[in-house]
Design goal:
InterPro entries: FAD-linked_oxidoreductase-like, PRODH_bac_arc, Proline_DH_dom, Proline_oxidase. The chain is an alpha/beta fold and 304 residues long. Helix content is 51%, strand content 13%. The chain has an 8-stranded parallel beta barrel with strand order 1-2-3-4-5-6-7-8, surrounded by 7 helices. Strand 6, helix 9 and strand 7 form a beta-alpha-beta unit. The longest helix has 21 residues. The radius of gyration is 18 Å and the shape is globular.
Length: 304
């Protein structure tokens, strides 16, 4: 049943029709728990609240259904406006983005041009941009563009997914760049030809890449709500004398808030991924697919 539900939500998240319906009805039925709002100002206020109790943030203007150059440029403009709003408000947050929202599926040149505009503005504000990793079909081109951008920018990082077979080699290949990486388990439905099908294998690989990247001496964001992974990281950094300035824990807005606050109290750097925007449906579906408990939260809101 859990697998069926996960597959259903992952499929819905890719549906243009479902996305259009979601936009029509807004952030109802529980989505507002995981999405900070539809406007920049709503997202800034959410970040301000996080900052007040010691949590920092990364803002993501949601957008995965981009079909024209004009839409891609508009999405990039929203990223730039978000960086400006962060600076103006004085909140502590960087920016996360998906390159498909910047036109990656339309033209690599268009995407790179938009990325450079965003990174230029981030550099002007002294801020940092994280490239979210998407499905396997976009993995290699995303890493290729990241390498290209790193020649000119040191304020950009990328995400690496533990469930892919290729990940350990990617960690080795990125070592020479001194890459700032967010390490995740992975949230897309992938073929067993390219990804570990079993959770236990993903968890084991996740631990290995955390160890490797930290021991390589590069900044590491461990993005997980799995307390076993978090405790593993705590013990590993302590045993190996790794400074708290070299890593952070990252979690999603609206999930495991007690754990987030507890880690802050323990002195760890905790960054919250705060999504906002009208194109929130695909993100919301992946959150439901990841944790069946989220589904029951949504169902309760529907009946209310």
């Amino acid at each position: 049943m859990e697998l069926m539900m996960r597959n259903m939500f992952q499929s819905l998240g890719k549906s243009r029709t479902a996305n259009r319906l979601a936009k029509r009805y807004g952030l109802r039925f529980g989505a507002a728990r995981f999405v900070a709002g539809e406007t920049i100002q709503q997202s800034i206020e959410a970040v301000r609240g996080l900052n007040q109790d010691g949590r920092i943030a990364t803002l993501d203007h949601l957008g995965e259904f981009v079909f024209s150059e004009a839409e891609a440029v508009e999405s990039a403009d929203m990223c730039i406006q978000t960086l400006d709003a962060i600076a103006q408000a004085g909140v502590t947050s960087n920016l996360s983005l998906k390159m498909t929202s910047l036109g990656l599926d339309i033209s690599r040149e268009l995407c790179v041009s938009n990325m450079r505009r965003i990174l230029d503005r981030a550099r002007m504000h002294g801020n940092f941009v994280r490239i979210d990793m998407e499905d396997y079909a976009h993995c290699q081109v995303s890493l290729d563009i990241y390498r290209e951008l790193r020649k000119d920018y040191d304020n950009v990082g990328i995400v690496i997914q533990a469930y892919l077979f290729r990940t350990m080699q990617d960690i080795d290949d990125l070592h020479e760049l001194g890459a700032n990486l967010r390490l995740v388990k992975g949230a897309y439905k992938e073929s067993p030809q390219v990804a570990f099908p079993e959770k236990s294998a993903v968890d084991e690989n996740y631990k290995k890449i955390i160890q490797k990247h930290l021991l390589n001496g590069h900044y590491t964001a461990i993005a997980s709500h799995d307390e076993a992974i978090i405790n593993f990281t705590k013990h590993f950094v302590k045993a190996n004398g790794i400074s708290g300035d070299q890593f952070e824990f990252q979690m999603l807005y609206g999930i495991c808030e007690d754990l987030q606050k507890q880690l802050v109290k323990e002195g760890y750097r905790v960054r919250i991924y705060v999504p906002y925007g009208v194109d929130w449906f695909g993100y919301f579906m992946r959150r439901l697919a990841e944790r069946p408990a989220n589904v029951w939260f949504v169902l309760k809101n529907m009946f209310k």
